[in-house]
Amino acid sequence: MENAQEKKFRLMTETPVKPLVCRLAVPTIISMLVSAFYNMADTFFVGQLGTSESAAVGVVFSLMAIIQAVGFFFGHGSGNFISRALGRHDNDTAQEMAATGFFSALIAGAVIMGFGLIFLRPLARWLGSTETILPYAVDYMRIILIGAPYMTASLVLNNQLRFQGNAAYAMVGITSGAVLNIALDPLLIFVLNMGIAGAALATIISQFVSFVLLLFGTYRGSSIPIRISCFRPRRALYKEIVRGGAPSLLRQGLGSVATICLNLAAGAYGDAAIAGMSIVTRIMQFANSCLIGFGQGFQPVCGFNYGAKKFSRVKEAFWFCVKLSTAVLIVLAIVGFIFAPQIVSVFRDDPAVIDVGTIALRMQCVTFPLAAWIVMCNMMTQTIGKALPASFLAMARQGLFFIPAVLLLPRLFGIFGVELSQPIADIISFAFAVPLEISVLREMKEEPEPLNKAA
Hints:
Blueprint: H1 2-14, H2 17-47, H3 51-87, H4 91-118, H5 120-126, H6 134-146, H7 148-163, H8 167-191, H9 196-217, H10 235-267, H11 271-307, H12 311-338, H13 340-345, H14 351-367, H15 371-383, H16 387-400, H17 402-413, H18 415-443, H19 449-454
Helix pairs in contact: 2-3, 2-8, 2-11, 3-4, 3-6, 3-7, 3-10, 3-11, 4-7, 5-6, 6-9, 7-8, 7-9, 8-9, 10-11, 10-16, 10-17, 11-12, 11-14, 11-15, 12-14, 12-15, 14-18, 15-16, 15-18, 16-18, 17-18
């Protein structure tokens, strides 16, 4: 284990930055794309059942965002610390953090499951269900909640493997479950005639398979294995989890609140409006997966080198990621803007849904390239332990500025205000992210060479 960890340290701190980031980013991009694709597969197959069923998936998506928020909280919180600890050669504490993050997430997921099943129908209404959507939302949500414990734990395993530089094992676990979900969707929904409940069952079965494979991956290569004997629910460890995971919790949690607000705002214009905005959310999530996957390739490089005090490598990796991701997002935005009606119609052939979705998708494509700077800044500040700026950036784009926009703009512009909310939030978030990140970069000053060698 020591030899493997030392080899990993040299790889992360001595390999040229650009090829290293790309090497780590490829499996994470694949994982994110496949995960986003199977979310879109749910939307596609359920969309064949009807507009209300399609809207129900959008409503429950906000609950899944809450479950993911908990998983990312423990996953990013423990993973960020692990990468810095390995950069300092503190392997024992890294093992304790790995176990503590995993088992804490498993317990938290079980709590969500229990409360969710007890308050199922009130929860569905609170998430934005109309009376016509409610029966389908309840059927879908009931099954999703059963999978909450290992959904949260899977996200912890995925992120811990990534932050150790073992993204290939994470990719195998995530993509295997995603492919299985895509195969199970049509079988359970149409062949076995389970309807929307079949889509939910396909999701939790695939999530469980991913969980098993990811857990197995922790015992491979230089990965830190998950052991119950290393579970240390100590205040110091949880303080580090909060420090590194709070931005993710705030981002995902506010994202869930934002989705609820979006559903409520769109619901005033009918089920077709909810369905249209839900489809656009999934499409943009798919496009964002490339950006997030690339950023996740940057994070272990950032964490290891920041822990080893090699700040010039951190900065080089950051600027490389910003430039390349901006160029890619510009291309995706142009394609999305031109072919918006055709893209939306793939998921639902209802003209009312297509009208809403087309305008919303085009508006979001206009500001989409700005997300490269916002997301990379967020990932960097979170990885290096800058909790306050990281938390602010995490809340900004899909929460802090989006929620007021989606509540105010429809009052002024009707349904167009709903469609315009995300672009407005993107512009304001970018304006705040530029000076914030520049100040963080200026704080990083390279340590004298002997300290680097001693690390």
